[in-house]
Design brief:
Helix 1 runs antiparallel to helix 2 and helix 2 runs antiparallel to helix 3. The chain folds into 3 domains: 131 residues; 35 residues; 140 residues, Nuclear Transport Factor 2, Chain: A. It is flat. A 4-stranded antiparallel sheet has the order 1-2-3-4. By secondary structure, it is an alpha+beta fold. The protein is built from 8 helices and 4 strands; from the N terminus they run αααααααββββα. The longest helix is centred in the N-terminal third of the chain and has 55 residues.
Length: 321
Amino acid sequence: MVREERELQAQFSKKERTQKLLDNLEKLNSSGSLGPEQYAQMKKGYETTLLEAENGLSDIKQNLAHQLTSEQRNLQIFTQEQSNNEARFQVGELKQDEFARMLQRSRAKIEKIKSRIAELERLLASASSADVGGYVDKPPAVKGGGLSRGGWIKVIAAAVIIGIALGAYLLLFSGLFSNQPEDVVVQFLQQLDKGEYEQALDLAVDPVTLQPYSSTERAQMVALAQMSYGRSGENIQISDIQVVNKEQVNGNKYMITVSAKYSVNSFGYTNTQTQTETIPVVNSNGGWKVARRLPGFEAALGLLSLLGVGYWWKRRASSLS
């Protein structure tokens, strides 16, 4: 929620800055220093900016409210699940070690959700820039006056020198710091693990068109991921992600083979397996993107199927013993 806090900080600062300008304008007008047309024009501009800031704050807080409702619902689900597991342990359905693992996992998830709820409530209760990091001053562009001609020449010359130096630096060292194809695959799987599906899809393109997914496609894939992984990635953990092989197909395409450990929670039963898969990565619009519909997702679905069979055999064996 760092992004939301920064957005609130920017909009609060914009509102406070504009309100101060309006107050100063009123004082200046009351002293008779402004003509009627000049006063009306400036006031209209400031009021428009103030309304934009207020609308921006309203939109951000509405989004935060939706997130809060979702997290509160998740908290109820996991709290009930924990209570159910405790009852299953007491009646003898779950063994001690199995119950301990499930309890540890559910407690970690509940604490994580509670932390998110507290942060969302804090942001929703914010009333000024002081509540979200402090005032950020971005003065408006100067129209008329300002630096002399000589001063502007010095500023422009300095900017040119800095630009040349920065360009040379990037040219020399960009290869050392640019993202590699395998980095995108690892980051993609990590975001799936955290339930950050929208961010994960920012790293993906359609394997046929090699273009970003449409808003409709993104919504469908996010909904599917939430059903299988959970709204916050609570149904699966993806860990120990390692790049096994990197094969260059051409200058704009690589095949990245990764190994990852998938811990799936389904039917009150947890199973962990290590899967290896090869994921294509392409250069699209100047950046590396995975070119597959939710790579790694197929492996997770396979695990869910195996887990269902495993749970059935476990219950069957228990009933026969």
